[in-house]
Amino acid sequence: MRKIRRAIISVTDKERIVEFARELSSMGVEIISTGGTGELLKKEGINIIPISSYTGFPEMLDGRVKTLHPKIHGGILGIRDNKEHSRQMEDYGILPIDMVVVNLYAFEKTVSSACTLDEAIEQIDIGGPTMIRAAAKNFRFVACVVDPADYRSIIEEMKENGGSLSGKTRFRLARKVFELTARYDGAISNYLGTFSDGEERTGEFPATFSSQFKKIQDLRYGENPHQKAAFYGTIPAQPSTLATAVKHQGKELSFNNILDLNSALEISREFHEPACVIIKHNNPCGVAESKEGLVRAYELALACDSKSAFGGIVGFNGPVTGELAERLTEIFLEAVVAPGFDGDALEVFKRKKNLRVIEVEAPSGDYAPAGYDTKRVSGGMLLQTLDAESASDLKTVTERAPTEEELADLLFAWNVCKHVKSNAIVFAKDRRSTGIGAGQMSRIDSTRIAAMKAKDAGLSLKGCVMASDAFFPFRDNVDLAAREGVSAIIQPGGSIRDEEVIKASDEHGMAMVFTGTRHFKH
Question: Which end of the chain has fewer surrounding CB within 10 Å, N or C?
C-alpha cells in the first residue's frame, strides 16, 4: 500500500470538510485546493496550495476552468509503476496526486425547484466529474472521495496503515464515483430532455429517461420460488418508505411480500383516523378506520373477509400496542407494517418468530408519494405520474343528494377503491369495507363478488355505499346494488349511458355522485 502524500480538495458540500482536511494535514498530506474550498480551509488555519499556484494558471472564465490542466490530470492518471509515465511526469514537473476529494455542483437540487434553463446550465459541473472519473479509473494508485459519509472511516484506516488505504477501499470508493457520475449525467439528461431546441419545455417526460436505484437487499425469491429477486431503493433514499424501513423480526422478505407491504402502507395512509388494512395478493380484503382506535379498526377490517386474511399482510397508520399485537397473533399472518411498535408489542411478536414485523416511520405532514410509477413491458417501459388525485370536486347527479353520513362513507370507499385491481367495486358502511370485488374482466362480476364476500362474512349491505373505480357501462350494477340495499354510489362518470345509470339510481331512490376521476389499477 502506498502512503497518501498529496490530495486535491474541491467540494460544493462543505459538510465535515474542515475536520477531514485537518486530519489529512496532520498526517503530512499536502493539500491542493480550489476557490471557495481553499478559502475556507485557509480561514480555518489549514495549509493549502491554491490550484492556480500549483498549475501556474489562474482560475478563469468565472471559475469554469480551474482544474482542467495537465498538472492536475497527469498527477491523477499517471500509472505509478509505469516507468514511461514516471519519466514523463518528471519531465513536465507533474507531481503524483494520491487522493481526490470532490463533490459536484448541486444540479439535482437546483432543478428540483423553480429555476431558469440558464441557471440549470451553470450547475452542470465539468471539472469535478472529469477529476473524479480520472481518479476512479486509476484506483490502483489514487483514492477518490465523493461522499462526506466516508471521511471518518478513511481517516481511521489511514491512521491504522501509516497513511495508506487498502486496494479494497480504493476500489469501493471508485465504484461510488461511477455510480455518482451515472446518476448525475442521468439527471442532466432527464432535465434537458424536457426542452425543445433549448428554449421551451416540451412536457413532463424527457426524450430519454434515466434512473438509478441502490440495492437494499437480495430477496428470498421472486413472484415464484424459481425466480431470483432483489429490492432496490431510490437514490437518494426516500424517507417514510419501505426502502428506509426497519425490520424487527421474521423471515427474509420475498418479492410478493414487498408488493403487499407497499399496498398496505399506501392504503393505510389514505386515512386520518386510526386505520387498518389487510392485504392479500396485492388487493385489500378488509379496510376500516375507527375513532375507537387501531384494535377496533383491525376487528372491523378482519370481519370483512377473515377467510382471505389468513396468510395476509396487515398495515396500520399508527403505532401497534401490546394489546393489538395479541390480537394479531391469533391468526396466521405473513407480516405487519406500522409506523411504530411499543416494547410490549415486540415482546408478543417474538412468539411468532417467522412473522415479519416492519416499521416504516410516519411521513411528516400530509403524505404525498413522490416519483413516477413504472411498469416494464417487452422491449421497453411505461412511465406515468402517480395516481394521487383525491375526490375533491364531487358532483351530485341524482335527484337525492347523499346524506352527510353517506358522503363520509362514499369518500372512504373511494379511497379504498383506487388501490383495488380493476375492475374494482367496494361496498362500505361506517368507514369500513363490507365487500370488495377485484380484478374481474366484467364490472358486474366484481359487483357480484363484492356482494358475495359480504354475505359470506355475514355482513348486510343494507344502507351501505358502493364505489366503482370507473364508470358503469350499463345500469345492471346499479340494479344489483339496489337489490342488496345499497343507498349511495360514487363513480367517475363519463359513460355514454350515464343518463341511463342516473335514471336507474333515481328509480331506486339512491344518491349518486361523480368524481370526474378514474382510478384504474392494472
Answer: C
* Residue found by looking up cell 394489546 in the block: 323
Is the same domain home to 345 and 436? no
Residue 217 in domain: no
In-domain check, residue 222: no
What's the domain count of the chain? Answer: 3
Residues identified as active-site:
137, 281
3-state SS class at 346: helix
Q: CA distances (Å), 47 to each of 9, 85, 486, 501, in order?
A: 12, 29, 79, 80
> What is the arithmetic mean of pLDDT over 348-361?
96
Residue 212: inside a domain? no
CA distance 135 to 97: 9
Tell me the pTM: 0.86
Q: Which residues of 49-81 are buried (b: 16+ CB within 10 A; e: fewer)?
A: ebbbebbeeebeeeeeebbebebbbbbbbbeee
What would the pLDDT profile of 277-325 be if each residue is shown by its tens digit?
A: 999 999 999 999 999 999 999 999 999 999 999 999 999 999 999 999 9
**Cα 112 versus chain centre, distance:** 16
Identify the pLDDT of residue 63. 67
Give residue 355's domain range: 244-359
